[in-house]
Amino acid sequence: MPLLRALLDGGLDDPEAVRIGDTAFSGPELLGAAAVVADEIGERSAPTSPVAVSATASAETVVAVVGALLAGAPVVPVPPDSGLAERGHLLSDSGATTWFGDKPRDVTLPCRRVDLSRRAGHEVREPTGDGPALILYTSGTTGSPKGVLLSADAMAAGLDGLADAWAWTAADTLAHGLPLFHVHGLVLGVFGALRTGSRLVHTGRPTPENYARAAREHGGSLFFGVPTVWSRIGDDPASAAALTDARLLVSGSAPLPVPVFERVREHTGQAPLERYGMSETMITLAVRADGERRPGWVGVPVAGVETRLRAVVDGPDGEPRTTDDDVPADGESIGELQVRGPSLFDGYLNRPEATAETWTDDGWFRTGDAAVVDGAGYHRIVGRRSVDLIKSGGYRIGAGEVETALLAHAGISEAAVVGEPDDDLGQRIVAHVVCPDGPVDAQEVMDFVGERLSKHKRPREVVVVDELPRNAMGKVQKARLRRD
Description:
This protein is an alpha/beta fold and 484 residues long. Helix content is 29%, strand content 26%. The protein folds into three domains: 5-204, Rossmann fold; 273-385, Luciferase, domain 3, CATH 2.30.38; 393-480, GMP Synthetase, Chain A, domain 3 (2-Layer Sandwich), CATH 3.30.300. The chain has 14 helices and 25 strands. The chain starts with a helix and ends in a 19-residue tail after the last strand. The mean pLDDT is 90.
């Protein structure tokens, strides 16, 4: 099941098949440049030794990653803005033997730079085997980042599930400006095109103007973005209008606020669709191209994936624990989402105990996310079980539902809800909000939420902040908001 099937089968003959910023390749040109990298890796290290790639939004990154895959070397994509401690951990933990890209002063590995003008004339094929193709590192919110081992077969299975859900074919042109060191931007946003045969336009920076240019000049039909990207497009009617003829607008990596959903629909004439996944699972849930698009709902399992929700109760120590009881598919009851299928990872690098903890005895992966599901199989993620499942006054409350209500307030542009210790309630709901037009009245905001949700779901405290702490993919880092 070659991950790079369309590229290797010669299905990308168009000279504009792969465009990264101002650099364009045909499939054979990309393959020839990547083969040079593969040869260099083979000369310098054992085929199974990981290589680190400085994952800038550039053609050099794409060539280096594809070349490493052709050489059979696991790729460690390193965020270009990573700090000394983070970069040092990624390199030492992964055992990377070579660095591709401009080398920071703290990196002591042998360094190679990609020469985009060079081509290898010999035929190359993707190696077979069940070893890791990518080592992606988690955000490290519960300790040092863990290396997620993803095989080529797992990624191919996940991409095929999305191709089925989104009717994604070689007739499409995929456009986005996402970072190339995560599943969203690299696996979906690069490997997806190289497997389906669709053209790829990476816009460099994910600005509204660049997305509009990708539509007007390159015929973009399938657009990927995180909520921040769609929010900016929704605030730019002229750029949004350029996306009117696009086939699908896909949002992921974090929940899409309802007001952003509505603005994008208003200015583009079509509702964006959402999906859900993790580095460990690829994309497991997605709204289908022909499916209903509901704000806040991430759709149904993709082909080959199964899901279930298991009830969460208080353990003897007062901490939540997951039971073996199923949660009713009523669209309201919250449970821990568990998944299984061919797109799941092979474990955490050198972390057998952490790997074992993520699996149930009967072979389901514990996502750690809290969700609800309705009778039609549509899922809504309410947040991380450890952070976003709040126990207040005897009620179990999903932070995502409260955040959605907050974002309907005219004076609030961003919101993040956390639970903080409370002697009376166990946890009180604290809302951190961004108010671009000036501070809002806290009691009025509490009442506003209380009118839309059950009274026990209203915030007990409202904190106005200039901005919410986010990671590179736009996810709010709630651990930095909690004051307990």
